[in-house]
């Protein structure tokens, strides 16, 4: 019963966040006008803002938020580390290097996206190859991830030291997270990939439950190494897809799974959908704030998530610690 | 045919061999205790049996077939393991946790069959944790959690159970409670192999004792035959006395403290 109330509140808050997102911005649109735009009536201007600009961006924010949160939830269970997040194995540094190289070479936007995806893929592959030699232990994965992160980040800084400040600025803006490039082709590719990857993670929810108790526990239940690899790649690719499409958006993948665990328990059959929904709502809300807090400027969404996410997390920890 | 058979098994971590030439048999229906000093290789022995650690040389057979030939799921249906520790305890309910033991028996979708439910309920009944069903395992006492972990392993498999120090950190009531459960299971056909630190519990409950010293089998046999003061002293490198429990008639081992030894020598 309590669970049902929680779920209802959860879904309702997501709906409110989505409506707020569509109405907020440099042009305020009332919920009534949003509804008429969505159903095809309403004024031409409202329709083009809602359907042409805000709705794709809303979907992009939701998809990326969900991907990051699911990726974080999987990594936290796989590595049995509450500090694990989607970027723990160096995906973000790999993507940053890829994007920076493309930006410095003044390549077109689609190539920046492609290059950053290749960069993150290289990071995942490197971590996988290093860890595989050491039986994919969680400490090994984390340390390999940190090492790969350092190598890629220092390469980015090396490029910065040799290039013009204008390009450095462009690359930095990319890293801070930007959802304004929600082009239909990118949106379709990202949504498709994310939905498939999240479904794979969910199909493995029982293996994740068992893996969250430890490797030897998993082995004595016949969870094979291949499940571990599948989950590692699924979570890593979710992170890669989101960082490629939206830049480095921090904290969503760290706090949302924690909040989902506190509300819905550790069973991944519920934890993963709850994380996906919570991550989507959180990122949509963060972007709504970023777009409307200081118009006509847009504050990068990564700045908002990290700033408010940090405050939220501290409050959450203080409340959790209170009983002891 | 032995349930487990090890033929000159060497195993260890990196270049260091912890087990150096282990030969042993575990027969069906045996209740075997593995004893020995810290670092002798007891846990490593259990890991090698369970297929958790591959031997560097030698052979480990389970039901006559090399452990290495079994698939991951197949072997986890053959026996259950209660590890010494859980790396991480998540806030699942007791029922959910015990239910996870059925994982190797379930299909791709993991739907609990009537069989699964019966096994889970039986396992909780045997260990007396049915009343804890809805509690979170993170809220249990050490003794309760250990009972739940045994229930979990019973739900997985009741024919052969491997345990690594199942009672080391428990009070005497919980220790005896768990050993009683294992005894009753053994009486109805379970083969049980447990690493134990308490020599006297091994003596009271087990049908055979395997003493491991420096990676080799130092002694092996029925408690009455192998728990002699000279053997136990050499196995553990200490001084002790062995007597008979007047109620059960089993040998019991008592250590002789250092200061008593000194005053005795005078």
Per CATH, which architecture of the largest domain in chain B? 3-Layer(aba) Sandwich
CATH fold category name of the largest domain in chain B: Rossmann fold
* Secondary-structure class of chain B: alpha/beta
Query: How large is the share of residues in beta strands of chain A?
Result: under 5%
- Structural class of chain A comes to mainly alpha
Termini separation of chain A comes to 27 Å
- Please provide the ordered H/E string of secondary-structure elements of chain A: HHHHHHHHHHHHHH
Instruction: Write down the domain tally of chain B.
Output: 2
Helix count of chain B, per DSSP? 10
How much helicity do the residues of chain A have?
over 70%
**First and last CA, distance of chain B:** 54 Å
CATH architecture of chain A: Orthogonal Bundle
Description:
The complex is a heterodimer of chains A (324) and B (266). Chain A has 324 residues and is an all-alpha fold. Chain A is built from 14 helices and no strands. The longest helix of chain A is centred in the first third of the chain and has 35 residues, at 44-78. Chain B is built from ten helices and twelve strands. In chain B, the strands form three sheets. Chain B has a six-stranded mixed β-sheet with strand order 6-7-8-3-9-10, sandwiched between helices. In chain B, strands 2-1-4-5 form a four-stranded antiparallel β-sheet, covered by helices on one side. In chain B, helix 3 (94-100) runs parallel beside helix 5 (142-156) and helix 4 packs antiparallel against helix 5. The longest helix of chain B has 16 residues, at 172-187. The mean pLDDT of chain B is 91.
């Amino acid at each position: 019963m309590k669970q049902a109330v929680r779920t209802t509140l959860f879904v309702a808050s997501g709906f409110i966040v989505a409506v707020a997102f569509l109405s907020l911005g440099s042009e305020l649109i009332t919920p009534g006008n949003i509804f008429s735009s969505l159903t095809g009536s309403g004024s031409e201007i409202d329709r083009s803002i809602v359907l042409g600009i805000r709705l794709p961006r809303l979907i992009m924010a939701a998809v990326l938020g969900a991907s990051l949160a699911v990726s974080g939830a999987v990594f936290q269970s796989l590595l049995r580390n509450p500090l694990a997040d989607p970027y723990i194995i160096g995906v973000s540094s790999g993507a940053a290097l890829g994007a920076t190289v493309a930006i410095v070479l003044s390549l077109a936007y689609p190539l920046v996206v492609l290059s950053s995806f290749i960069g993150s893929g290289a990071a995942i592959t490197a971590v996988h190859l290093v860890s595989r030699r050491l039986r994919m232990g969680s400490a090994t994965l984390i340390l390999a991830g940190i090492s790969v992160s350092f190598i890629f980040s220092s390469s980015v800084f090396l490029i910065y030291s040799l290039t013009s400040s204008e390009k450095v600025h462009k690359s930095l803006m990319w890293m801070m997270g930007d959802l304004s490039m929600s082009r239909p082709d990118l949106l379709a590719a990202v949504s498709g990939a994310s939905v498939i990857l999240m479904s794979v993670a969910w199909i493995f929810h029982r293996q994740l439950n068992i893996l969250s108790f430890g490797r030897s526990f998993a082995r004595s239940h016949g969870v094979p190494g291949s499940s571990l690899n599948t989950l590692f790649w699924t979570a890593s690719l979710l992170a890669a897809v989101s960082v490629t499409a939206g830049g480095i958006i921090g904290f969503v993948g760290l706090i949302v799974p924690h909040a989902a665990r506190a509300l819905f328990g550790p069973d991944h059959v519920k934890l993963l959908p709850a994380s996906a929904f919570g991550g989507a709502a959180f990122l949509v809300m963060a972007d709504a704030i970023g777009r409307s807090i200081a118009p006509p400027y847009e504050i990068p969404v990564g700045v908002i998530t990290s700033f408010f996410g940090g405050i939220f997390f501290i409050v959450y920890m203080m409340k959790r610690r209170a009983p002891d | 045919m032995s349930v487990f058979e090890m033929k000159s098994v060497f195993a260890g971590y990196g270049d260091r061999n912890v087990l150096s030439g282990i030969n042993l048999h575990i027969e069906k229906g045996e209740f075997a205790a593995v004893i020995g000093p810290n670092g002798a290789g007891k846990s490593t022995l259990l890991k090698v049996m369970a297929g958790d650690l591959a031997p560097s040389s030698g052979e480990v057979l389970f039901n006559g077939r090399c452990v290495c030939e079994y698939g991951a799921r197949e072997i986890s249906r053959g026996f259950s393991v209660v590890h010494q520790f859980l790396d991480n305890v998540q806030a699942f309910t007791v029922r959910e946790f015990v239910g996870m033991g059925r994982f190797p028996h379930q299909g791709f979708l993991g739907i609990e069959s009537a069989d699964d439910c019966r096994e889970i309920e039986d396992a909780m009944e045997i260990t007396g944790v049915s009343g804890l069903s809805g509690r979170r395992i993170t809220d249990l006492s050490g003794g309760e959690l250990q009972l739940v972990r045994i229930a979990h392993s019973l739900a997985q498999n009741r024919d052969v159970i491997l345990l690594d120090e199942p009672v080391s950190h428990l009070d005497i009531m919980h220790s005896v409670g768990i050993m009683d459960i294992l005894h009753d299971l053994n009486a109805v056909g379970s083969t049980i192999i447990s690493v134990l630190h308490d020599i006297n519990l091994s003596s009271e409950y087990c049908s055979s004792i395997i003493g491991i010293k420096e990676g080799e089998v130092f002694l092996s046999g029925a408690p009455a035959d192998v728990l002699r003061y000279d053997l136990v002293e050499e196995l553990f490198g200490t001084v002790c006395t062995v007597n008979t429990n007047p109620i059960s008639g089993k040998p019991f081992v008592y250590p002789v403290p250092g200061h008593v030894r000194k005053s005795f020598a005078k």
